[in-house]
């Protein structure tokens, strides 16, 4: 993992194509990292979202990707994967090797952008997750064929306000999607399941949800700050003959490890399928 904490030496103009959840999160990260509102242009067709972006961040908002990219040095592609090809066709006349293309669209490899935007285009692929909205995200970034180490450092500085940023090889992005990209949904599903278990044992639903959510948050915080492995921390809670060990044994017998592995494998497989379908 490379260090991506250094701030950019200079602050270029950024075009964010798509003002949805991830696009607006990128805008928030840029503003936190020191970008002026006048240096950020967002392409967003939805008038409601456009107004919200102007009100919240004071950024420039246009209705077309072409307008947003004019005058930009960095282009963030934050549209839905199925819309990416059309957006790239629109901006292709403006894009040169001096531009840095950052994509946060799932399932599309850097080669997808390189093939459509021309020789020498510099692409960095990012796989964020939704907790980036509250600055607790986990984002992996990877270089395309023409991107440089300096580009990776720059993107890391752009995104550091969203949470953890790590550098991986692009071949690892599907695995990242399986673990952290789709991972928040696994967490929500587990909170739902634990909440239902609490209700079945007589707890009020709101209380059960609060207890389940805080327990996961607290356990994650303990894991991150204790320096111990998950196995060590699990064993410390699992007293011989106690309630926790009985619960874990029942979960193992029900196939907990197999269920998690199957889900992660399905996510990685679907990412590869999306690349094939859209590419």
Description:
With 279 residues, the chain is an alpha/beta fold. The chain has 2 domains: 14-173, 3-Layer(aba) Sandwich (Rossmann fold); 183-276, ProC C-terminal domain-like fold (Orthogonal Bundle), CATH 1.10.3730.10. The chain contains 12 helices and 8 strands. The protein is elongated, with a radius of gyration of 21 Å. The two termini are 29 Å apart.
Describe the protein's topology.
Elements: E1 14-17, H1 21-32, E2 40-43, H2 47-57, E3 60-62, H3 65-69, E4 74-77, H4 84-91, E5 100-103, H5 110-117, E6 122-127, E7 137-143, H6 149-159, E8 163-167, H7 173-181, H8 183-200, H9 205-226, H10 230-237, H11 243-253, H12 256-278
Parallel strand pairs: 1-2, 1-4, 2-3, 4-5, 5-6, 7-8
Antiparallel strand pairs: 6-7
Helix pairs in contact: 4-5, 7-12, 8-9
């Amino acid at each position: 993992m490379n260090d991506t904490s250094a701030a950019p030496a200079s602050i270029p103009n950024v075009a964010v194509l798509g003002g949805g959840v991830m696009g607006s999160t990128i805008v928030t990260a840029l503003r936190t990292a020191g970008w002026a509102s006048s240096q950020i242009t967002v392409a967003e067709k939805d008038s409601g979202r456009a107004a919200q972006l102007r009100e919240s961040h004071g950024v420039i908002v246009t209705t077309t990707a072409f307008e947003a990219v004019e005058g930009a040095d960095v282009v963030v592609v934050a549209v839905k994967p199925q819309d990416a090809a059309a957006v790239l066709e629109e901006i292709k006349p403006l894009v040169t090797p001096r531009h840095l293309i950052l994509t946060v669209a799932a399932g599309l490899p850097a080669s997808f952008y390189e093939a459509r935007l021309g020789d020498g285009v510099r692409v960095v692929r990012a796989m964020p997750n939704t907790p980036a909205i509250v600055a607790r995200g986990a984002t992996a970034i990877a270089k395309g064929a023409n991107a440089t180490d300096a580009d990776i450092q720059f993107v890391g500085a752009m995104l550091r306000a969203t949470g953890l940023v790590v550098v991986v090889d692009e071949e690892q992005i599907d695995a990242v999607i399986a673990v952290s990209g789709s991972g928040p949904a696994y967490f929500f599903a587990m909170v739902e399941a634990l909440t239902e278990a609490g209700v079945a044992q007589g707890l009020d639903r709101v209380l059960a949800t609060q207890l389940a959510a805080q327990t996961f948050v607290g356990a994650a915080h303990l894991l991150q700050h204790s320096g111990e492995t998950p196995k060590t921390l699990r064993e410390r809670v699992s007293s011989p003959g106690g309630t926790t060990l009985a619960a874990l044994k029942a979960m193992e017998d029900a196939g907990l490890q197999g269920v998690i592995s199957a889900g992660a494998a399905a996510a990685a497989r679907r990412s590869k399928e999306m690349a094939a379908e859209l590419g």
